[in-house]
Amino acid sequence: MRFLFIAAGSAATVFGLAPLATAVRNAGHEVFMAANDNVMASVAGVGLPGVPVTPVPLLDFITKDRSGAPVTVPQGMAEGVRFTGSWFARMAVAQLERLLDFTAHRPPDVVVGGTLCYAAPLVAAKFGVPWVRHAWDAIDATGADPGAEEELAAELDAFGLDGLPEPDLFVDVCPPGIRPTHAPAARLMRWIPVTNQRALEPWLYAKDDGRPRICLTAGSRVTQDAAEGMAFLSRMVEALSLPDVELLVAAPDDVAAQLRADHPGIRAGWMPLDVLAPSCDLVVHHGGGTTALTALRAGVPQLILPQGAFSVRGAQALVDYGAALSLDPREAAPATVTEAARELLYSAGHRARAGDLARDIARLPAPPDLVDTLTAL
Predict the structure, then answer these.
(1) How do residues 165-186 score in pLDDT, each as one tens digit?
(2) Of 45, 231, 275, 367, which one is least surrounded by beta carbons within 10 A?
(3) Which EC class is this protein assigned (predicted)?
(4) Where are the beta strands (DSSP E) in the chain?
């Protein structure tokens, strides 16, 4: 069988789909990963054939409408969620031409789309084949669908659809302990962290000394908006550079070089979080779903400064469970960040709750366990 997996414009979306795509390929099926041009290196890095589908920068979909006119990002929670659906829908439109050109030569038997990959149901409808919605984080994103349907009205009509079709299967990686009661029925799957790797030095997997270790990261957000990501990391370095704590900053090498210049003596660079996280006592980040799940899998508490409506929702779920604290990045003073970090470092309760979620994840079926379910579609 031939499977088409569709990611988006950040490396995290590729990494989220990679474990199941690899399991399907290892079972002997033909697999392709479609994604935006800027993340083709990440697709190649996970060993999958990559199909580049749009050269448009990710931020253009967020800040501009289809005509190129600027749009205003809403601030409210409900409005922000709906808006997310609309800009992911604009991305889907930009992806369609190349996707349909590719699939004309290699028609898929099953289409697997990431959480907000609205091109997936359209391509599946074109060929009359099943489509699978595959969560790439622990956040319920169905609230974005109305915004996507509104943006895609013309495309849905052209494909003979009254609205976005329901997926034939939903693969969810959210740990049961924080999965919303209203979440749609799903086949649950264990989160397997994937990222770009590097040759490992001992400090990446073992502490240099007995001090508590904090990992600070802004995930792939740094590559999407370098200025904003750099500003976030700089503020957090100032708040977390404590004499009794070892601070590591996981960031792309170009950003890390600037951080080292601005903060002499700091250890910053590309660090595979799946290797690093188990040696950490705290992960501080921007609310990225893959970062949060990777920390959870290692049983590490988190301090989250969420960026965007979905990040706020995901952070709140972990706070409610007791595995994290969350601060508004626009209002958190350095002293407040320092205080929250110390609370998490020295609170057995937060670590215990994070450990509960790690065990939740470990009990779920692994990606190879879902291959027969996909082929049965």
Answers:
(1) 999 999 999 999 999 888 899 9
(2) 231
(3) transferase
(4) 2-6, 30-35, 50-52, 110-114, 131-134, 169-172, 187-188, 213-217, 246-250, 267-269, 282-285, 302-304, 324-326
Is 359 exposed, middle or buried (CB count within 10 Å of its CB: 0-12, 13-18, 19+)? exposed
State the DSSP code for 182.
T
3-state secondary structure of 139: coil
Which residues have C-beta within 8 Å of that of residue 44, sequence separation ≥ 6?
50
Distance of CA 271 to the CA centre of its chain: 17
Planar angle of CA 126, 129, 134, nearest 5 degrees? 105
Q: Which residue has the tokens 């740094």?
A: 222
DSSP result, 94-126: HHHHHHHHHHHHS--SEEEEETT-THHHHHHHH
- pTM to 2 decimals? 0.94
DSSP of 329-345 = TTT--HHHHHHHHHHHH
Name all domains of the chain by residue range, CATH numbers in brackets: 2-172 (3.40.50.2000), 202-362 (3.40.50.2000)
At position 14, the amino acid (one-letter code) is V
In 3D space, the residue among 285, 294, 284 whose CA is nearest the CA of residue 344 turns out to be: 284
Number of Cβ atoms within 10 Å of the Cβ of 125? 17
